[in-house]
Amino acid sequence: RERVVSLLRDGAARVQSALLRAVAEEAKEDPFAKVKVMIQELIERLLKEAASEASHKGWCDQEVASAEQQRTYAAEAIKELNGQLATLEGRQDKLTLFLQDVNRELLEINDTLSNSSSLRDQEKARNNQTITDAKEGKKAVEQAYTMLQKYYAKAASDTALAQTGADPAPAAPAAPDAGFDGAYQGAQGAQTGVMGMLELIMADFDEAVAATEKAEKQAAQDFIELETTLGASRAEKQVAQEQRQKALVEADTEHDAAWTKFDAEQKKLDGALTQYLALKPACFDSGMSAEERRLQREEEMDALKQALCILDQHGASGGSAECCAAAAVQLRTQPRRIRPGIDEDPARLRARGKRTRVRAR
Questions:
Q1: Are 202 and 142 in contact (CB under 8 A)?
Q2: What is the model's pTM?
Q3: Whole-angstrom distance, CA of residue 238 vs CA of residue 235
């Protein structure tokens, strides 16, 4: 009994096993048969735990790898989509600014055409009125010129008849006295000045008509050229406007599609992170890694088998005793398993050394 208890306690101290410590306490008081049954049941339980943990570890490895893969793929996709969104947003900004400039230029062209057309209509109306007035004025002067021309011609004819002694025309009824002695022949000396002035006035009217018609023709030509230039510029900018508008619609569509993908990938990433965090309690937060639990379980099983071997010596043959002795030698001489994160911890080593020294005293 003392050998079994000592063996179990040493194993419990070596691997810090509560299981071996509990079995050692039970072995101090319980009968051998009950202790043997308990050790056998514990060995079976440890074997089942090993098989179950192997299956659990495989499941954890698979699920963790899947979550990490989904997280990596989603993160890479989001990084790529971020670049695409930045490029598309820059393109949208440029197209928007270009369209604003084109719309402003088109508005200016339309305003210029509208104002020029209005001014041209007013100018044309003034020119037409000027030509009409000049022609009517010339016509009135022509009528006066003709009347004076006839008047002076008749007066000159009367004077010539009087000088040649021709028979006068039949006497006309007596007319009131006009206050002149003899027949009135008109101001023949002023004829040249008056007629010349009327001719000058008619020439001025002709010049006004000609100058106005020339100015009107040039103004019409200038307006046609301006209208043609502005019309060509407007047509060019309208084509550019349509093209950029179409490009902006395409950029908006691509941006919406990229944003939809981004949202989907973000959900995938959130799902992968949620899955990873959900796996943490089952696969990472047990206090010991799977390798550490495996090493501890193997040492616990070795100690339990040694204890069972010692108990089997009672009433067993010499072969059993030799087997037990060989197993004991193997347990004492086998290299001690170093458990990463536990046995390499200086604090744990110091604590274990203190317990060993206390036990030795």
A1: yes
A2: 0.47
A3: 5
CA distances from 206 to 133, 149, 195, 212, 341 (A): 11, 20, 16, 10, 119
- Using CB atoms within 10 A of its CB, is residue 251 exposed (0-12), middle (13-18) or buried (19+)? buried
Q: Coil, strand, or helix at residue 221?
A: helix
Report CA 265 to chain centroid distance, whole Å: 17
* CA–CA distance, 318 with 313 (Å, rounded to integer): 8
For the segment 81-133, what is each residue's pLDDT rounded down to a tens digit? Answer: 999 999 999 999 999 999 999 999 999 999 999 999 999 999 999 999 999 99
pLDDT in tens, 172-223: 444 444 444 544 444 544 556 888 899 999 999 999 999 999 999 999 999 9
Extract the tokens encoding 293: 């639990």
Burial of 46 (0-12, 13-18, 19+ CB in 10 A): middle
Four-residue CA torsion sign, 156, 157, 161, 167:
negative
* Banded model confidence at residue 30, pLDDT cuts 50, 70, 90: low
Q: Cα separation of 10 and 262, whole Å?
A: 60
Report the alpha-carbon distance of residue 360 to residue 354 in Å, rounded.
Answer: 10
Residue entry with tokens 């040492």 = 299
Helix, strand or coil for residue 288?
coil
Cα dist. 276→1, 149, 207, 280, 286 in Å? Answer: 49, 121, 100, 6, 15
Q: Which residue type does 60 have?
A: C
Could you tell me which of 203, 200, 201, 199 has the C-alpha nearest to residue 211?
203
Neighbours of 42 (CB within 10 A): 19
Looking up tokens 């007596």, which residue turns up?
174
Helix, strand, coil abundance in the chain, percent, nearest 5: 85, 0, 15
